[in-house]
Amino acid sequence: MVGVGSAFEDEEKFVVSEDGDLVGGDKAEKEVDRLGASGAGGWKVIMPPMALFFYFLASEKLGFWLSAFVIILALSQTMGAKLRWSLVVSFIAPALIHLIFYKLLRVPLPIGLLSFPWV
Amino acid sequence: MFEPLLAGLHMVLQVDVVLTIMLASIYGLVVGALPGLSATMATALLVPVTFYMSPIAAISAIIAASAMAIFSGDIPGCLLRIPGTPASAAYTDEAFAMTRKGQPELALGICLWFSALGGVIGTLSLIALAPMLAEVAFEFSTFEYFWLALLGLMCSTMVARSSPVKAVAAMFLGLLITCVGIENPAGTPRFTFGHPDLLGGIEIIPLLVGVFAVSEVMRSYTARDAPIIPPRKFGSILKGQWALTKAHPKQQLRGNIVGIVIGVLPGAGADMAAWMSYAMSKRFSKTPEKFGTGHPEGLIEAGASNNASLASGWVPSLLFGIPGDTITAIAIGVLYMKGLNPGPTLFTEKASSMYALYIVFLVANIVMIPLGIIMIRTSRYILYLPRSLVMPVIVLLCAVGSFATGNNLALVFTVAVFGVVGYFMDRNGYPVAALVLGAVMGSMVEQSFVTSLIKSDGSILPFFNRPVASVLALMTFAAMLWPLGVWFRRQIKPQGIK
Asked: What's the ipTM?
């Protein structure tokens, strides 16, 4: 009989090792440990909630455009994006999201210091 | 019968609904295919957008996006050995083995074809089961609802893929969260710490966005980008699928049935269905040694299973407001918001809306085939969207979306807090689904318990001497004692077979 819950499966772990190979089984677990120990991620993990906290504190004063710009730039930089690309996204994505939410869905968004032309 | 059916069809054939289905499908396909973004997360991020839609369009968006995301999670699993959603994890190795054998189009074709078939059959089960159960549910009073809610909570801990103790702990945390605020039968402020923002309780949608979306973004900091595979040209995707359907009817049927059963069980969804079906397929196969080497059997069964579970998960959600999986846990909130309060009366008073819902399910699973083929062919471009650019946008959407649900910045703070909670729970093996179920159903347990006690003048006897209630009570206690029984059996047989 097939069991219920954690009893019926053996989950095989696999990760991508540093040289780009896929490894499975015990080696994978060591790889996970090693990546964990070397701090892949590390303190940066706290960035997404910090970004939301920043939005909570600052968006009323700074407005949507500026706070969204800061959030995307900070997050993409800590995730290791190329500066050029993260600048492009931090300009375009807030504008798109603002357009969709503000214009199409009529969600009120903080105006603050800088506003979009369609506000 | 025909009148509500026609009315339902009319509801679906509105411009806004059709447009919503198409857009939500594309959204689901893209999010599902991106490793690290699950179908539940896709649904959670969709909720704030559905606020501003008509009821049928809102539900259609959720149905279409979740069905597509569960399928498209198979694509990176097949091509890169990285499951796009947890529901694909069970058979990722198998699918990748087929790709290595030079049959990626066959593997992807199986995933697509049997996902669509599974979805259609799951929908048929929903159409057949729900009205039948609605008849029974009309007899239910608060006593039965209390046991049903409790049974749902117990099931969620029983089927969690972690230790039962941790699952129960997670569920209790969820129940504790629903205690916060003034919205309890006595109207007493609880756990508000004198803070006015906590008087209204903790909103469920920011909680869901936090534990499902923010925590996944946090996890992505520790994951690596997908390895680059050489571009390849796919042959015909659907070629040979009909032959496979005829060759493996038993596997497909078994997958569908397991998926439907798991879907109906509260708290267990597509990922559980896929693991279970894959394990079952291997156990009952005539050639179990071929599993893991790129053998279609397990792929067919698990693929048929996870999409079937998606539709049947709506059965308890629509009838009792008890979520069948994490996706419907989110959908229930939307149902309430749109005035389609779950309950057996939905099937009589809002019959046309129910027909509309069935039609959307069928349409979504049918358009999955052409859209899925397009997605597979363009997957090369979508899979390599750099995570470092996608994830920050997701965080911004979490902020804007949760704000939209209540025009209150404190909600954004809630999202951040539950992102951290979800991240640490997941890291330490506490199932987030159990927390969510506790949080969604806590008030139902309390309300039905208190109302029942008021009705019976404080006597607990009617909880046990009403016929249906007594059966449900027995089932609840059985579910409660199940992990103990399993533990006890293991103590007796230390070398027991898994």
From this structure: 0.82
